[in-house]
Write a structure and sequence with these properties.
Helices cover 50% and strands 5% of the residues. The chain is mainly alpha-helical. A two-stranded antiparallel sheet has the order 1-2. Strand 1 and strand 2 form a beta hairpin.
Amino acid sequence: MPCSAFPTSPRKAPSPPQNCIPQTAEALDCSTADYRLSALRYDLSKLRAKGLVEKIPHSRRHRLVPNGYRICLVFLKLFERIYAPLTAGLLRPFPADNQLQNQRLSQLDRLYQRVTHAVDDLVRAVGLKAA
């Protein structure tokens, strides 16, 4: 009679990294032809070197360390609240906005303008040039 603590079915082996490629490519918004297994391995090695993920011993899996999770949250919040609205305003500006006087702009628009000017100043200060 089999013991319930020791199942009779074989344990499922961890999936190899190449099985993660479709989901990773989709998350990065690229095709599997553009994002190959070598790119995934390279990215994981860089994340491990920076201490953001760790390899689970005796497996092919990785996990976020607590600081890696915090850093991911910071970048997601920056993207959602600052980068996405700024780039939307730069890529698809409303033509009538250029004709508004500064005092008629909403506070949010004025703040985004200040961020845009501050980033421009930072780019100039570190010696970067527009492509």
